[in-house]
Amino acid sequence: MSVLFLLTPAQMRRIRPHVPLSHGIPRVDDRRVLSGIIFVIRGGLRWRDAPPGYGPHKTLYNRFVRWSVQPHLRRPRRRGRRARPPNHRQHAPEGPPHRGQPPQKGAPDRCIGRTKGGLNAKLHAVCDSQGRPVVMMLSAGQMNDQKGANILAPLLPPARELIADRGYDSTPFRAALAERGIAACIPTKKNRKQPIPYDKALYRQRHRIEIAFRRLKDFRRIAARYDRCATIFFGAITLAAIVTFWLGQ
User: Fold this and answer.
1) What confidence tens digit (pLDDT) does each residue in 122-164 have?
2) Separation of first and last alpha carbons in the chain
3) Residue 41: CA count within 13 A, CB half-sphere
4) Long-range CB contact pairs, 209-212, < 8 A, 24+
5) Hey, is 89 helix, strand or coil?
6) How far apart, in whole angstroms, are the C-alpha atoms of residue 95 and residue 2?
């Protein structure tokens, strides 16, 4: 076990409140199983190829699926959000596309849609001033950026400014931000008759969310979208965000 990746005891103390409680028979070591799940997602392995030191691969897969369909692991920013000052900035561009296969007729929505680049999914995200995701949403690839922004707008925590690319330049979205006291740092579209000025120096900080997406794509199961089920795929994204940005990895 010494050569395997393992979460530290301090990291487990942070994540344990978000892990579902066991009912009935005590389950195997959460630290070992969760470390194995992270190892598989990061390396892009098949579940059956997980090192034996993490235990049976069926245990890893079943535990990951069961946790993915529950909301316990979908709160990576709760503690940091309370500690964050109310005047922090936010960044909200669209996420990188992920390829997949079209769902069969009658199958549940897999968040896969047809775009110019093929069949893709889209990850929408909002990051804090340090580039850590605080709100995320998975959608089909053809979803308009503004539609995704309108869905995420009510979930935004208090902030002073929001930085986004020109794909989010719309009057309703700007009005929604203004109602919450958030200044929009968004370049105007070329077809807007009256350009709206924005802080170009502040806009340079938008690179932080681009870096965040690149770090998420270091997890090969996410970059290649191994999981067709949208719930399982989003569970992998959430776990990767927790490990990368909120556990000090």
Assistant:
1) 999 999 999 999 999 999 888 888 888 888 888 888 899 999 9
2) 19
3) 28
4) 209/91, 209/92, 209/93, 209/125, 209/127, 209/131, 210/93, 211/131, 212/125, 212/127, 212/131, 212/132, 212/133, 212/245
5) strand
6) 36
